[in-house]
Specification:
The structure is a single chain. By secondary structure, the protein is an alpha/beta fold. Helices cover 39% and strands 17% of the residues. It has 11 helices and 12 strands. Strands 1, 2, 3, 4, 5, 8, 9, 10, 11 and 12 form a 10-stranded mixed sheet that branches. A two-stranded antiparallel sheet has the order 6-7. A hairpin with a 2-residue loop joins β6 and β7. α3 packs parallel to α4. It is globular. 46% of the residues are buried.
Length: 325
């Protein structure tokens, strides 16, 4: 035999040299939950090893992340009070806004991304302003734009609308530009499916809908071409980066969006993916590090440039150890 593919698998040095899919710590974003308390830390029951942080504990977590080489964080706020309009999302003294100011004051080198949505802040748990029992798309746009602006004014380096309202990227871009923030990028949750993988997050953030579901605005997971349509619309509205969510079961979508667009592409490995790995590892069914590395590599192999994951510190360590990258 002349062709022997195994020649290139002989040892770790050779395998690393010819590796097709590469990643680095620079591609990692860690999602964190902050509550309206100074001193508080509570493990999330459905997400072992993940916590709701008070401000002091959040700052300690940021210091730990930076020491591990993870310098990008997306913040999710859990307010003490909610209302029909989700007004806490854009309050100048809101939970996320206060946290952003504190983080930037202490760790200016940390890159902060604000999740722009209403579901954590509305008393009904939906991602926008209700009109009867239906989320009114156009009424919601003003609130989303105000939320993005308030986060940027508090220190966010980037905003990431996750609501799936039509036209939100254009509305946010217009308000940011009008207020002197023309250089602030928007990473759109462009292709966000109505997924069963979100269950632990809704437990963590207390954001489960009080009635109904989110299928009238989040995407039907049967559809691929619609995802490309959503991505192209966000490109036209001025998005700077795109995201596919979830990641693990959506490699085909990541690949298709990558092929159809020319913007940097993120994939969000969501709470359900994290908890599945953690639970199986606890039961002794899998090697946790081996599996989280394999899942991450699959997202990058499909075309992701950026990876949002609760396993960011573990992946960073695996990169240091040469297990991935």
């Amino acid at each position: 035999m002349i062709q022997r593919p195994r020649r290139l698998r002989t040892n770790s040095v050779l395998r690393g040299m010819v590796r097709e899919t590469r990643m680095s710590k620079a591609s990692l974003i860690y999602p964190a939950f902050v509550v309206e308390r100074e001193d508080f830390q509570e493990e999330i029951p459905s997400m072992p090893g993940q916590y709701r942080y008070g401000l002091n504990q959040l700052l300690a977590k940021m210091e730990s992340l930076l020491s591990q080489g993870v310098d990008k964080v997306m913040l999710f706020g859990i307010p003490d009070k909610k209302d029909e309009q989700g007004s806490g999302a854009y309050a100048g003294d809101g939970v996320v806004q206060k946290a952003m100011r504190a983080i930037k004051a202490r760790f200016p080198e940390l890159y902060l991304i604000g999740d722009v949505c209403m579901c954590e802040y509305t008393s009904h748990g939906h991602c926008g302003i209700l009109d009867g029992g239906y989320v009114n798309n156009d009424k919601t746009l003003e609130s989303l734009a105000k939320t993005a602006l308030s986060q940027v004014e508090a220190g966010a380096d980037m905003v990431a609308p996750s609501d799936m309202m039509d036209g939100r990227v254009a509305a946010i871009r217009a308000l940011l530009d009008a207020n002197g923030h023309g250089t602030t990028p928007i990473m759109s949750y462009a292709v966000k499916y109505a997924s069963g993988f979100y269950g632990p997050f809704r437990d963590a953030a207390g954001s489960a809908p009080a009635f109904g579901d989110r299928k009238s605005y989040q995407m039907d997971y049967h559809n691929l071409r619609e995802g490309i349509k959503e991505a192209l619309l966000d490109v036209a509205e001025g998005a700077d980066l795109l995201m596919v969510k979830p990641a693990m079961a959506y490699g085909d979508v990541i690949a298709a969006v990558k092929a159809a667009t020319n913007l940097p592409l993120a994939a969000y490995s969501v709470s359900g993916e994290y908890s599945m790995v953690k639970t199986c590892a606890k039961l002794g069914y899998i090697d946790e590090t081996a599996l989280l590395c394999e899942i991450a590599t699959a997202a990058f192999r499909a075309g992701a440039d950026i990876y949002l994951t609760y396993f960011a510190p573990e992946l960073a360590q695996a990169m240091d150890e040469g297990r991935i990258g």
